[in-house]
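Two proteins, back to back. First:
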Amino acid sequence: MKSDLEFFVLLAKLGSLAATAREMDVTPPAATRRLAQMEQRLGVRLANRSTRRVSLTSEGELYLAQAAQILADIRAMDESVSSSRAAPKGLLRVNATLGFGRTSIAPLVSRFARKYPDVEVQLQLTDRGINLVEEAYDLGIRFGELPDTRLTARRILSNRRFLCAAPAYLKKHGVPETPDDLARHVCILHRQNDDAYATWRLTRGRKAETVKVRGRLSSNDGDVVLGWALDGHGILARSEWDAAKYLDSGRLQVVLPEYHLANADLYAYYPSRQHQSAKVRAFIDFLVAEFAPAK
């Protein structure tokens, strides 16, 4: 039964019987027969087949959600029994964002792997939203709080956000003195997910102001917009993690320093479970220690 659940979750993830067959090291006809046998046993059609792709029916979507949860529960049960006193070991699946994952998390995974040679780490980098349970990740690493209440989060790093610009831009266009002044400035826009990226919410003490901004340059990549700010193209909302070294060197300057945006703290998210596996606990503890400020 468990193998059928794993087969179906993999099929839904890959969207192709041929790709699923390759992943499982079986022939495509064998994968097709397996799906047909599952449908015959359940008495419902789980997927619609085309020449290259499969798409889940409504019954298939329901089966997928429950299959993913059952597999997660089985994995949690096994880990809670076997890892309470054991050293970290086994497969650890981690998801992080593209840029930050490549530049910051990947080097930490390298050091973690040396410290815990019995842990096999799969690091998947993506900026899209993820479902940790359905996609079988042990944890996700993201800036900012996620709205999924089914997850447990541990803060890895405090990370303030503020407005900044290159001195050359401010010399040419002037320094804004109030949030209202931003409407007359060129701003660089960072598009993330479905956020209202052209609306900045600034706080000063208990007072909050929402400002609609405009700009000719926008991107969904944080390194790209930071580079444009360094080139003097406008005012940018950025976090201290990204901008600190440029503020220290003088290449960027804080704008409206008495105002702040919502923090972009770094969190490790994982499915809520009573018993956390040794490998997940070790990796999160490792991240907290690595990101701890130097004393």
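And the second protein:
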Amino acid sequence: MVAGISPVVLVAEDDRATRESLVTAFELEGYEVLAVGDGARALEALGTADAGVVVLDIGMPEVDGLSVCRRMRARHDHTPVLILTARSEVSDRVSGLDAGADDYLAKPFALDELLARVRALLRRSRYDEPDGILVVGDLRLDESARRVWRAGREIELSKTEFDLLQLLMRNAGVVLDHARIYEHIWNYDFGPDSKNLAVYIGYLRRKLEDEGPTRLIHTVRGVGYTLRAS
């Protein structure tokens, strides 16, 4: 993507009403939108369009969303992919991530959450470049040097603490559920009874917030965690 040019969102959705509503929503947000109704046309479009992010429905004719994602990754296309599907089981979410998707949203979904997740994917694609700097409020993270500062004070973090904070900052403003965090950080979902994530969130909060600054890491009860400046 060229700086100053609105990102292109490729929407692949076979339901016409859903597809048209997504096009309208993204265009109102200032994105350029390319919309197709099946996986085969999505793969064709990816060969010619410079998409910044792809929104894929799983249950499409011709070629389904998971197959599209697998083919993209097989040809080394690293464009961020958000999977949309009516399937909400953990196994289905894992299948999407294993196929190479970057995020997963079950239908029905809140439009605001979809837009926030797309923004996060676009930010993440920029930060995947060397020397990425993430900034949220007075918190600054240098991805290349693996260093963190809060209000100008450097904070020492373990590898897992750094990786967890990096994930939260890359998705600032988005609520990440427990399963997604476990899969990203530990490559395994320890289940709802595990306290492992809560322990590491506690470690981060003590290091980032014990000196009295505004809280950054917020708990969304029954769902997961989000990082935001206010």
